[in-house]
Design brief:
By secondary structure, the chain is mainly α. It has 10 helices and no strands.
């Protein structure tokens, strides 16, 4: 079956991403997909293949958006370290938007696929690794700029930050009180600040 002439692949992927992000892979039915994409089954298969193929593409679409958002944020920052701190601070603003979930879609996928669908589990692991690499690149840039000590391990710092952010997003999704969320963000920022090399006047 041919796709309708009004078909927009990016819009369809955004709708699929939102659906899977909210419900997960297994809980999403073909009827759910038809409604979210406004497509008949034949058109869905023609455009994306199987449900699994659509999910994989939606997960990549989500990850690409996260990476683009981070790079755009860093491009507008005064320095690598201030960019990371600003990015962490922006999480509460992101949590206030009407997104399908505050929790990371990739991490939710990794948990859901822990004991099945090894190719989707592997895909999620790669996407998580890509984000860690982005953080590591930023910590490395901060090291080269003299913002943090030269013996700082960018990979280790990146994994710690990624773990903190992932946990924070999960707590926001669970309904944690706003004041507690802000306190956790302050703690994450403090961890980043501890890496900062003091200036000559001790600031």
């Amino acid at each position: 079956m041919a796709r309708p002439s009004s078909f927009d692949r990016e819009d369809a992927l955004a709708n699929a991403r939102n659906l899977f992000w909210r419900k997960g892979f297994h809980a999403t039915s073909l009827k759910d997909i038809e409604a979210a994409l406004s497509l008949k089954p034949g058109s869905i298969y023609a455009a994306f293949g199987s449900k699994k193929d659509l999910f994989a593409e939606a997960l990549k679409f989500y990850s690409a958006g996260v990476e683009e958002e981070f790079r755009d944020f860093m491009a507008q920052s005064r320095s690598p370290l201030s960019g990371l701190i600003g990015y962490v601070r922006s999480i509460t603003a992101s949590g206030a938007t009407k997104m399908p979930s505050n929790a990371c879609m990739v991490f939710k996928t990794a948990l859901e696929m822990a004991n099945e669908e090894p190719d989707l589990k592997e895909l999620a692991a790669r996407q998580l690794s890509n984000v860690a690499d982005l953080f590591a690149e930023t910590f490395d840039a901060a090291r080269k700029a003299g913002e943090i000590a030269p013996d700082t391990d960018p990979h280790r710092a990146a994994l710690k930050l990624q773990t903190s952010i992932t946990g924070l997003r999960g707590m926001i999704e669970s309904g944690l009180a706003r004041d507690d969320v802000e306190n956790l963000i302050d703690d994450i920022v403090s961890d980043i600040e501890r890496l900062r090399v003091p200036t000559q006047n001790g600031v």
